[in-house]
Design brief:
- By secondary structure, the protein is an alpha+beta fold.
- The protein has 4 domains: about 100 residues, DNA polymerase, domain 1, CATH 1.10.150; about 45 residues, DNA polymerase, domain 1; about 150 residues, Beta Polymerase, domain 2 (2-Layer Sandwich); about 60 residues, Beta Polymerase, domain 3 (2-Layer Sandwich), CATH 3.30.210.10.
- The chain contains 16 helices and 10 strands.
- The strands form 3 sheets. A 5-stranded mixed sheet has the order 2-4-7-6-5, sandwiched between helices. It has a 3-stranded antiparallel sheet with strand order 8-9-10. A two-stranded antiparallel sheet has the order 1-3.
- Strand 8 and strand 9 form a beta hairpin.
- Helix 1 crosses helix 3, helix 5 packs across helix 6 and helix 10 packs across helix 12.
- It is globular.
- It starts with about 25 loop residues before the first helix and ends in a 13-residue tail after the last helix.
- Bound molecules: guanosine-5'-triphosphate and manganese (II) ion (2 copies).
Length: about 375
């Protein structure tokens, strides 16, 4: 080989928050396979294994070109023995037997179907699977006892499993802006989550709300919810009040990544007439009424959309924005970087420096990256 033909070695940093990960990449056959195994590990409550597969997939997403031979993977971090075996099988044979077997397995399919119901987590799905339930229809037919969220999850199952388009997200943004500005003029509304990262579709629409006057945002959520309910825009909502107290909770990272902001998990009733006619989906499955007994309404004038609303005090807004933009792996890696490499503790509320024993304030995401000693990664390249 002439020197000019040698592909230059790729310098791949080992934390996802040190890398740029675009939405569209060159290795989706491999990353889809690894993410099936990650999901399956999650379903079997094997968190460590799941994260390992997700990190491996994420490294492949950051590569500037498609992997063709095992040589292309030389010197890349986060690729464990198991991931390498799966990749090799796919490069050699086109598919991985383990991935295909997993994909087809009754447990994987049932867990995917059951956790696909809003309000159902891995723990519940696993219990139901062991009781013989396999999908959302079994929940109705076997008259399973459901909580309020799960009831809504079953009722709006088809809509909630229809990806939310960017257009729909924009229509909902207009509604949320109107609601928030009506109850608190001067409030700031930011679209977070996948849409902020440039995704074309999402499973929900995420918003972060704040106000420049610290304290003005207190108890804001019930007012927003009332406004939306008065307009008949909510099919379901569960509001949780703010429970973050800097001194009481201390710097310790919460055990789970749930934060303590005032928040609302909701299901919006989105009028189709609010969408431009050219983007109207003529597909008859689109809210076409009763097909399998889960959707109680008929006609196609509206559809159900999951919306997450979070209210943050202005002083925590930068941390909340960073924390709610994702991706989930990017967030996890940011916190791991902070803890393992910097002796700091990062949450969606604050950054605490253990050595200096003090909180490090920040007014923007850029400042937080700087405080963490990281190069700034814009939202569109946080698709780790
Ligand atoms: P899709 O909605 O599936 O398109 O992707 P998404 O990236 O928007 O996912 P999701 O809406 O589930 O979450 C958006 C971001 O908010 C992710 O980065 C999550 O880590 C974060 N997030 C979700 N729930 C919580 C939570 O309870 N606490 C904190 N701190 N972050 C959360
Ligand atoms: Mn989202
Ligand atoms: Mn969300």
């Amino acid at each position: 080989t002439k020197p000019s033909e040698v592909t230059p070695a790729i310098l791949m940093k080992s934390y996802a928050c040190q890398r740029r990960t675009p939405l569209k990449h060159h290795n989706s056959v491999l990353t889809d396979a690894l993410e099936i195994l990650a999901l399956n590990a999650e379903f079997t409550k094997n968190e460590g294994r799941s994260v390992a597969f997700r990190r491996a997939a994420s490294v492949l997403k950051a590569l500037p070109r498609g992997v063709r031979t095992m040589d292309d993977l030389k010197d890349l971090p986060c690729l464990g023995e198991h991931s390498l075996r799966v990749i090799k099988e796919i490069l050699d044979a086109g598919t991985s037997s383990e991935v295909e077997w997993t994909r087809q397995s009754e447990q994987f399919q049932a867990m995917k179907a059951l956790t696909g119901v809003f309000g159902v987590g891995v723990r519940t799905a696993d219990r139901w699977f062991r009781e013989g339930l396999r999908n959302h229809l079994d929940l109705i037919h076997k008259s399973q006892k459901l909580n309020r969220a799960q009831e809504a999850g079953v009722q709006y199952y088809n809509d909630l499993n229809t990806p939310v388009t960017k257009k729909e997200a924009m229509v909902i943004t207009v509604i949320v802006e109107k609601a928030v500005n009506d109850v608190l003029p001067g409030a700031i509304i930011t679209l977070t989550g996948g849409f902020r990262r440039g995704k074309e579709v999402g499973h929900d629409v995420d918003f972060l709300i704040t106000h420049p006057d610290e304290g003005a945002e207190e108890k804001l959520m019930p007012k927003i919810v009332n406004w939306l309910e008065d307009q008949g825009l909510l099919l379901y909502q569960k509001t949780t009040r703010n429970s973050y107290l800097e001194n009481k909770d201390g710097p310790a990272r919460p055990a789970c990544n749930m934060d303590r902001f005032e928040r609302c998990f909701s299901i919006f009733k989105l009028e189709r007439s609010k969408l431009d006619s050219d983007t109207r989906i003529e597909d008859s499955s689109y809210n076409s009424g009763v097909t399998d007994g889960t959707q109680t309404h008929s006609g196609s004038t509206w559809r159900a959309v999951r919306v997450d609303l979070v209210v943050s005090p202005y002083s925590q807004f930068a941390f909340a924005t960073l924390g709610w933009t994702g991706s989930k792996l990017f967030e996890r890696e940011l916190r791991r970087w902070a803890g393992q490499e910097k002796g700091m503790s990062l949450s969606s509320h604050a950054l605490y420096d253990s050595k200096q024993q003090r909180y490090l304030p920040a007014n923007s995401e850029e400042e937080i990256f700087t405080l963490l000693g990281l190069e700034y990664i814009p939202p569109s390249e946080r698709n780790a």
